[in-house]
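Ticket #4471: structure output looks truncated?

Reporter: J.K.
Steps to reproduce: submitted the chain below (238 residues) through the standard prediction queue, then opened the result file.
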Amino acid sequence: MSYYELAVERIKNIDAKQYIGVSNKRYSEFRSRGEYEVDARLIAEYYRRVGAYLQFISKEVTSIYAGMDMLIGYKMVDNEWDELLVKCPNFVEIDCMLMKLISMHYLRWCTLLDNSNNIALQFPDIYEPMIILFERGGGRISTHHHELVGGFGAFSRSIDAKRGDKKPIDISDNALKTIIEEIELAEAYLVEHKKGNLTEKYCIRCGNRLIIHYNNEFGQQWYKIKCETKDCFDNNFS
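Returned output as attached by the reporter:
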């Protein structure tokens, strides 16, 4: 199968039920903290890949709305949206314009790959983090003022070329699974700790102790759970 054909199959197989009826719900009602942590990592890796691409084409910044092909001069045809919904009818029910837009740009990029475009071939997987995000049910994202927002927090709506200087993020299935598991472990640890259970817990990644730190600033109790190992697990919980 071609890049484009494989891409269409992936988009067609996204379960629309994950996105129907969630726009009026609180983030915590349908997605866990661990899953949102994964969402943030995937978006951060997408921004890094776009940053590297911007450096390659000598462009300083782009919008989250822009397609990578558009940045090198390709135009959208008038019936592009209609064709997307014909090829991927599951998207008719999904009420997330940004998700539809990025998916369409992904398909257009795959067309360039099939045509052996020299620039596209340098960045064949640039959209992979976002497509994984949508496949996992993390597509409840939108733009508000100058930010991309969701249950994970917020990212700038503009993607700077400097993002390309950051260290690549592992987005393999195993790495994403570990992120969720360590958040769940920390959440359970904190619940038991608040009940007076002082049993120690240990980091999934390295095996060293997890330590709970307290923060009472501004009259509110906050907690930070850190691994003894430097640059390992470190997360704030309230």
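Triage note (M.O.): checked the attachment and the full token line is present. The chain has seven helices and eight strands.
Status: closed, working as intended.
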